[in-house]
């Protein structure tokens, strides 16, 4: 692994355009350093399949202790990746009937050891509009007010992750028509120190 490797955890609420921004940032970063994108939920499901599970729905219905074990296995696989830059696409929280369940509890942060925490955000009204018009996903339709609440909770959670890990955090805006700008901001941040 490169001496100045980066393992950036990139988060964002549904409809913010996180995956699009991450994909574009990886293209930019690959011009300078070997970069990999890893989707935490996908790695978790790959581990679940080794246990005989056939669908993500089965994974969600597992006992919480088993889900935690799968999370830890996925985090360990990510921690072992040896690319110069690893972009970890995940969620800060899952909105459950019991409340907000953290997607990155401290035990996972301790395994992954992120060097950077990045939250992709956008205007709440734009996110509401994107969710309503997205034909490719089954998105929960919620008001711009509730989306603003999710953004506010995300800001607190990403700052908390930064405090727990010592990794700097940034909030990158991805408003309509600004994917390239958002991706370039992420790339620039992760290439700091490469000029030396």
Overall description:
The chain has 196 residues and is α/β, with parallel strands linked by helices. It has a single domain (6-39, 83-190), classed as P-loop containing nucleotide triphosphate hydrolases (Rossmann fold, 3-Layer(aba) Sandwich), CATH 3.40.50.300. The protein has 8 helices and 7 strands. It has helices at 18-30, 40-50, 56-60, 64-79, 106-112, 124-133, 144-165, 179-190; strands spanning 6-11, 35-39, 85-90, 93-96, 99-102, 116-121, 169-173. Strands 2-3-1-6-7 form a 5-stranded parallel β-sheet, with helices on both faces. It has a two-stranded antiparallel sheet with strand order 4-5. A hairpin with a 2-residue loop joins strand 4 (93-96) and strand 5 (99-102). Helix 1 crosses helix 8 (179-190). The mean pLDDT is 91.
Task: Produce a short descriptive summary.
This protein is an alpha/beta fold and 196 residues long. The protein contains eight helices and seven strands; from the N terminus they run E-H-E-H-H-H-E-E-E-H-E-H-H-E-H. Strand 4 and strand 5 (99-102) form a beta hairpin.
- The helix content, as a percent range, equals 40-55%
Strand order of the largest sheet: 2-3-1-6-7
CATH fold call: Rossmann fold
Overall pLDDT: 91
Percent of residues in beta strands: 15-25%
Largest sheet: 5 strands, parallel
Backbone structural class: alpha/beta
Overall strand count: 7
Shape: globular
The termini sit apart by 18 Å
The CATH superfamily appears as P-loop containing nucleotide triphosphate hydrolases
Q: Name the assembly state.
A: single chain
Which stretches are low in confidence, meaning pLDDT under 50 for 5 or more residues running?
none
Q: What's the number of helices?
A: 8
CATH architecture: 3-Layer(aba) Sandwich
Number of domains: 1
Please write the string of helix (H) and strand (E) elements.
EHEHHHEEEHEHHEH
Radius of gyration of CA atoms, rounded to a whole number = 17 Å
CATH class: Alpha Beta
